[in-house]
Amino acid sequence: MAGDILQRQAFRVGEVIFTTGEPPRCAYLIQSGRVDIVIEQGETKKTVSTLEAGDMLGEMALVDKQPRSASAVAREPATCIVITPQDFQRRLEKSDAFVRAMVKVLTQRLRKMTSD
């Protein structure tokens, strides 16, 4: 992303970044802080992962244009780089055809595993 003007967004502790079922607006690259990935199991919410600086979240929805499969909540103050669908698609299209196919297959498999 060198040379690009990168939009950043800050989140407070407990702030919801996105929720399950939302359409994909963007993905995020965490610069600082930590973010919980949360799924709902009936009436309860379960943290399935905690992401930190250098991790990306929300990318699956940009790959397959499906609604969010989980929610993301700031565990501590977090600053994230915003990755728009257009930027994501432009970068994906620049990658090797094998890489593009692999990203799509892995996203499909992960979504199938998390939807049961």
What does this structure look like?
This protein is of the alpha+beta class and 116 residues long. It has one domain: Sandwich (Jelly Rolls), CATH 2.60.120.10. The protein has 3 helices and 8 strands; from the N terminus they run ββββββαββαα. It has helices spanning 59-64, 85-94, 97-115, and strands spanning 8-11, 16-18, 27-32, 34-41, 44-52, 56-57, 71-74, 78-83. The strands form 2 sheets. It has a 4-stranded antiparallel β-sheet. A 4-stranded antiparallel β-sheet has the order 2-7-4-5, with no helix packed on it. A hairpin with a 2-residue loop joins strand 4 and strand 5. It is globular. The termini are far apart. The mean pLDDT is 89.
How is the secondary structure organized here?
Blueprint: E1 8-11, E2 16-18, E3 27-32, E4 34-41, E5 44-52, E6 56-57, H1 59-64, E7 71-74, E8 78-83, H2 85-94, H3 97-115
Mean pLDDT: 89
- Number of H/I helices: 3
Q: Enter the CATH topology name.
A: Jelly Rolls
> Largest beta sheet: what is the strand line-up?
1-8-3-6
Please give the CATH architecture.
Sandwich
Largest sheet: 4 strands, antiparallel
Could you tell me how far the N terminus lies from the C terminus, measured between alpha carbons in angstroms? Answer: 35 Å
CATH class wording: Mainly Beta
Structural shape:
globular
Q: Structural class, from secondary structure content?
A: alpha+beta
Q: What oligomeric state do the depicted chains represent?
A: single chain
Estimated helix fraction: 25-40%
Q: How much is the radius of gyration in Å? A: 14 Å
Number of domains: 1
The count of DSSP E runs of length 2 or more, i.e. the number of strands, is 8
Which regions are unreliable across 5 or more consecutive residues at pLDDT < 50?
A: none
Beta-strand content estimate: 35-45%
Order of helices and strands: EEEEEEHEEHH
How would you name the CATH homologous superfamily? Jelly Rolls
